[in-house]
Amino acid sequence: MKLQNGHIIIPADVFSRILEGEEQVNLVYYPERNQLLFAGKSKVFFEKLHKTKWQRLKDKNAQGDKSLFVREILLDYDLDDTDRVLTCEIKTTGIISIELA
């Protein structure tokens, strides 16, 4: 995954494996860990475990990549908004964890 112009770009292969059929995700940012967590809206347990907000996934291109707008988080927490590849972990529960430091 990468950060590009204030959006996290989710590659088509990750989307099809983890988020297939999802139009929205729940997400939460933990500043003490510099970690953004998100999961498909259908993962009700995630919403119950974390104080989340939902956001619609947008189509990025014809190849099936999706984008998630995170500029607000970057600004609110004074994070680096430089376009770059992001370190991420995909958990077996369907939760995606991204390092934003």
Brief characterization of the structure:
The protein is globular. The chain contains 3 helices and 10 strands.
Number of helical regions = 3
Please give the domain count: 1
Q: How would the global form be characterised?
A: globular
Which regions contain 5 or more consecutive residues with pLDDT less than 50?
Answer: none
Q: What does the largest sheet look like?
A: 5 strands, antiparallel
Binned, the helix content reads 10-25%
Order of helices and strands: EEHEEHEEEHEEE
Averaged pLDDT: 95
Count of extended strands? 10
The largest sheet has its strands arranged as 6-7-2-1-8
Terminal-residue CA separation: 14 Å
Strand content: 35-45%
Specify Rg, calculated over alpha carbons: 13 Å
Computed structural class: alpha+beta
